[in-house]
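Follow-up to my earlier ticket, as requested here are the two runs.
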Amino acid sequence: MATSRTIDPELLRAFVTVVDHGSFSAAAQRLYRGQSAVSLQIKRLEEQLGTRLLDRSSRRVALTAEGEMVLGSARQLIALNEQLLGRVQEPELAGLVRVGAPEDFATSRLPRLLADFSRSHPQVALEVVCELTLDLQRRFEAGELDIALLKREPSVTLDGTRVWREQLVWVGGDALPRDEEVLPLVCSPIPCVYRARAIGALDEAGRAWRVSYSCGSLAGNHAAVRAGLGVTVLPKDMVPGDLMLLDNAAHRLPMLADTEIALVAKAGLTPPMARLKEYIVHELELGSGR
């Protein structure tokens, strides 16, 4: 039975964080709290609402039917809270910020992050450019971007702050031929970090390969893999649900080392640019589990 007519935003934040991260332990790390404290917050929220929000019986925490109904409103209330704080604490933040990001990252991790920032700072306009990393780097060096997220090898020195580490995997579709002696590759055109990583690993392993399909569009490459034109390399947590991780041994594929994403920012950032940089670094470092 409900015991209060006012819900603590921190309880809602704990609930949304558990849902987004799939477990109490991951949410606890994200919120800088103990797992038992997060569990207690969820219990208090469920008591206030008089219903169970999460199904804890499965390996990964799942929403109940009531939890699904509450989730949207919880996100709205948190966003309104952040928007109010942003307007009161930083009312002067206004202007344009030009951001560059690789397409796969810009279509997976970045949208919600930028949406949350925009709700807190509605007078800041965001201009996002999605291109290959080396093209983004050239744009940044030419002064066309204020902030850029660039893929890099962990061993390569690149000025900037590491904000994400990616586990790379081989990916294929149901229609992938099983008897290809020369491995067909689906990849982006040169320059592409993943293309170079795939070819380098195959050459080192002595596995023959050929580029069967090359497209600058991430969606186009995904479609080619679905159609069975070849295999590709993607970050493990960005593999579409209708594509599959390939078993390296079964397909004679070499292991792929992790790669990183670093944030670089121009000198002399305006207040909106500096605030967005700080926000991206903070949120992505938390999300990467470091």
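Run two:
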Amino acid sequence: MNPDASTIAAGAPIEVDLSPIAEGQDIKVFWRGKPIYISHRTKKQIDEARAVNVASLPDPQSDEARVKSGHEQWLVVIGICTHLGCIPIAHEGSYDGFFCPCHGSQYDSSGRIRQGPAPANLPVPPYQFVSDTKIQIG
């Protein structure tokens, strides 16, 4: 028995199969009416995110704090710009992450704000791995 659409919209946890997402690709799903980006990051994206001096970031947070240990290739973030609530575009901007075309905020491949008026990183929703190829958000 699965919950009906109104229960899911109200915030029931959702499960997402990661197996069809190719390396370097991301998908967008919806949870609680919010867009959730799930990115299958490349080794290059992970290395670049981890090479950043955390102290230089407007909202200092390490890449390791934004992903699950043992699943570093997967980034899960709420896709709402922390400036005015616009929806950023994945794989755009100067940092191979997310770009908000409305006012120019740029996030890196860890969803951290790097440039522009946004005051904070893209939030990480509550999620867990239920298997190596499936996550539960919520």
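The only thing I checked on run two: The radius of gyration is 15 Å. Let me know what else you need.
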